[in-house]
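Figure S4 source data
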Amino acid sequence: MPRRTAALLVAIALGSVAAVGCSSAAAPDRAAGSSSGTGAPDAPASASTAASPSASSSSPSPSAAAPTAVASTEAPTPSSPPAPAVASVAVRGTVTDGLKSPWGLAVLPGGDLLVSERDSARILRVSAKDGGKAVVGTVPGVTSGGEGGLLGLALSPDFATDHRVYVYFSTGSDNRIARLDLDPSRPAGSQLGAPTVLLSGIPHGPRHNGGRIAFGPDGFLYAGTGDANDRSLAQDRDSLGGKVLRLTRDGTPAPGNPFPGSPVWSLGHRNVQGLAWDQQGRLWASEFGQDTWDELNLITPGGNYGWPTVEGTAGREGFTDPVAQWHTADASPSGIAFADGAVWVAALRGTRLWRVPLDGDRAAGAPQEFLNGDYGRLRTVAADGDGGLLLVTDNTDGRGSPRPGDDRILRLDVSAG
């Protein structure tokens, strides 16, 4: 178990930051708004802000309805210079629209995109040139319902030669990770080969299925799972629920994992839906809170992140505190990305994009918000390989309020300072 990092809790009232938008032929972009979402985590968004419930006795009580940055008191690991505390975001345009319950996103060599649709179990290819959509195929065996369905999507690190796609999906009894071959020379709709299931038995429920998968800089596959509405699973080292997992490309526990013979990389999570690595190879993860605190965590092997004993920063021996946290009305964080020295967090209930500037392994300043209410629920954010971001909305999942053109993928320009 890694040594606990002492933390300093600093309450920071944030001001709104206006984002510049522009339209594209695919669909008109909305003007900036100032509304925030309410409802249970990963629940319907609305334009009014509700007071956050009081924290439990094991969590600090919120002093204001504002996000909180948690900064380590240790000296940071030697790294790049701290990111500027303030940045700007401009919406360059809409890459495509008309998606239904989009969830996972991957950037193909050459710039085209693959996107998974949760409820239809389809994988679509989106043209980088004109936003045109083509169905690559439908993943068999997917059972949609609640928060389950076809979720995370990742490309093999050797995709250019092996053409392999990895998916995280729900069945009627569990969540699974599978591998499929993609053959673009075959007709549209039938370009996916039969899935090879690499890992099954990940706990499944109507809520808290996790679902994000991503290859790390070490070449291994990481997966964020949820507790499937059974809190006890998060602290059960023999369960795959409420964990970050680390696997080989064939689905076996990766060498060097902290618990021999186990795919578990970290534990004590409620519902992990975001994974990203910074320039120094550190793994960051977003996590849905229960009633009080959503979290951005720095993941270390064998680390215990406290759920269900603690939620948010607690300062308790044996548990790792988050680096940043938000009241649940302001976030419900799903996908995350690292770009321009910061972790970017897509918020569902909070209907905004958060930026957490980094100074090594700690926050360099207060979380900064963008696009508050402009595009509704935000599911996924990804680096586009050009220094910008791709942002996926999710208003058609049954919990949002769809607008004309939903759901869409936006292309963002970001600049620090």
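Figure S5 source data
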Amino acid sequence: MALEHQSDTMSVSGLCQICESRPAQERCQNCGALVCEIHFDDGTTLCADCASQAKPGRTEDVDTYQF
């Protein structure tokens, strides 16, 4: 799992830290976890775990076990 710095953007590489099977494409703004697009909430820019904690009554919006 490595980060490559390119001017103002970062390229994320490695496996998703939640499902450990899909390529990581995003970084959680809360915990810093590298996650795949399935385990990333675009609306909050959080991983599925942090998003479900941030919106405890709305866990149906993010499926942390979908692979």
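Residues 3 and 9 are 11 Å apart (CA to CA). Residues 48-54 form the longest helix (7 residues).
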